[in-house]
Design brief:
65 residues; two-stranded antiparallel ribbon
Length: 65
């Protein structure tokens, strides 16, 4: 068992590929700051990897499964 919270499980389910935090938050029906908190925890558990976007600076990081 992974010991995931409901929010972490939802985030993993909704991440269908690289996406901005704002998009993930929308899919999770929460604020972007909450999505960031959840992604931080998933990253610490080694379940996802965050990569810098390949876009002009100033845009959000994108979590990756």
């Amino acid at each position: 068992m992974l010991g995931l919270t409901a929010a972490q499980a939802t985030a993993l389910r909704e991440m269908t590929g690289p996406m901005a935090m704002g998009e993930l938050a929308e899919r999770m029906s929460c604020e972007p700051s909450n999505a960031t908190f959840v992604v931080d925890k998933l990253e610490k558990q080694g379940l996802i990897e965050r990569r810098a976007p390949q876009r002009p600076s100033g845009q959000e990081s994108r979590p990756h499964k």
